[in-house]
Write a structure and sequence with these properties.
Fumarate Reductase Iron-sulfur Protein, Chain B, domain 2; Glutathione S-transferase Yfyf (Class Pi), Chain A, domain 2; five-stranded mixed sheet; three-stranded antiparallel sheet
Length: about 450
């Protein structure tokens, strides 16, 4: 980046617009687990204004405060001025990264996310040697630490691993059945952007999406050169990494998007990053050409259940199958789905024909994932935020808790594991694909 963040982004503009009404405080995830005015949305905003005016030094104390936000967007959702508190915190984290640097383990992680071939090799080694440090918890869909590891306590549930990634499992093109002899009557062609966790850890998500699209007789295109959407790096302040991955993805998408009817993303965080945050990032960093290119390529991109419910007869097919399970499902609304993209009805619409649905007391409450930093250095906050979510899931007595977000899966899976709740996490696509089987 040729300019520093503070030379481009106006923190004071957001700070001056805050009316200090306090509507954000009751819904703030960090304030719920650590009630302190400093780490509340209006506290963050006030400090950011002071930072830009030169009244606040970006020292280790300020760094600790700004890294305590979960970026759940609850405050944005209720703010009468719709102030983008999450966005300004994302931008100040870039300044934090510039001043303090990014820890080595995060830099290694972001390097792997940018270099998929290297990541493929690392994940294969991880798969082969995982049982040395982890016990396979197949029912819970993860691995449990056998002993305490750096930033991973004994007994913590982490994502499982696959020997072969989703992108390497399938051919690039999976044809649909020929409809008829009329060349004008062609099946839809849908691309899949899989997301890193679904690619390497929760591969059944992609397998299920492929099964669903096959059932709908849709031609499938799996772009092999797709990179990480950039969300982990963006939420951490690794701006250079975000810029490289985002630009590479946009250039790649431009090469095939005109030939596709849509691109589906079975992940709320990836979808929000691609559909929303890419444009915000380029706007905030004074790159209008890339902002426009990001907007163009994302016009055909959707969260998977959103597009499947709005554009296909999948709901009617599921009803016609008549398959009724006696395993209740409760649905958790990922922050990046409901609050950022307004998506919450469609996954429920597709689950309801075959599963008894039971709503938890607050499905919209953040599960507490919070990003890489919250899952490592500040995991005590993630643990505290996960406890009430696990409790409300337990109250439903549901067999499955579902959400179209693998980040939520990581957090909720461990919260349920820690609370010894038997409910199992499944992506809605996994449950839908099960409903389609004979």
């Amino acid at each position: 980046m040729s300019k520093k963040t503070e030379e481009i982004f106006n923190f004071s503009e957001t700070s001056d617009a805050c009316i200090k009404c306090g509507k954000c405080i009751p819904v703030c995830t960090i304030h719920q687990v650590s009630p302190d005015e400093t780490t509340s949305p209006r506290g963050f905003i006030d400090l950011l204004g002071a930072y830009q005016r030169g009244d606040l030094e970006l020292d280790k104390n300020a760094k600790n405060i700004f890294e305590s936000c979960f970026l759940c967007t609850n405050c944005v959702d209720v703010c009468p001025n719709a102030l983008p508190t999450d966005m300004v915190i994302e931008e100040v984290r870039a300044d934090i990264a510039e001043k303090f640097g990014i820890p080595l383990f995060k830099r290694i992680a972001f390097y792997l996310l940018e270099n998929r071939k290297v990541m493929d090799i690392v994940m294969k080694f991880g798969f082969m040697f995982k049982t040395c440090a982890f016990a396979n918890e197949k029912e819970k869909g993860g691995l449990k630490a056998r002993f305490a590891l750096p930033m991973v306590k004994k007994g913590r549930l982490i994502p499982s691993m696959s020997f072969t990634s989703f992108l390497n499992k399938y051919p690039e093109n999976i044809p649909a059945k020929k409809l008829n002899d009329n060349p004008q009557d062609k099946p839809l062609r849908i691309a899949i952007f899989i997301g890193c966790l679904a690619n390497y850890n929760y591969r059944n998500i992609g397998d299920s999406l492929v099964e669903i699209l096959k059932e709908l007789n849709i031609e499938i295109f799996i772009p092999k050169k797709q990179q990480c959407c950039g969300a982990p790096a963006y939420f951490t302040g690794a701006i250079d990494s975000v810029e490289r991955m985002t630009k590479a993805n946009i250039e790649y998408f431009e090469s095939f998007m005109d030939e596709c009817d849509a691109m589906l993303i079975p992940e709320a965080t990836c979808s929000a990053m691609v559909k929303h945050d890419w444009q915000v990032f380029f706007r905030n960093h004074d790159m209008p050409e890339w902002e426009a290119r990001a907007k163009r390529v994302t016009e055909k991109i959707y969260m998977a259940t959103q597009w499947l419910d709005d554009n296909t007869a999948l709901q009617e097919i599921l009803k016609a199958k008549g398959k009724k399970f006696d395993t209740p499902v409760t649905y958790h609304d990922p922050c990046h789905a409901r609050k950022v993209q307004g998506i919450y009805k469609q996954p429920r619409n597709l689950l309801a024909p075959n599963y008894p649905m039971v709503e938890m007391s607050d499905p919209n409450r953040c599960c507490g994932f919070g990003g890489v930093t919250m899952q490592t250095e500040k995991f005590h906050f993630a643990e505290a935020a996960g406890k009430p979510k696990a409790a409300m899931i337990k109250e439903t007595q549901a067999t499955y808790v579902s959400a179209e977000c693998s980040a939520c899966r990581v957090q909720i899976g461990e919260s349920l594991n820690s609370a010894e709740v038997d409910t199992v996490f499944k992506n809605p696509l996994e449950l839908i694909a099960e409903s389609l089987k004979k």
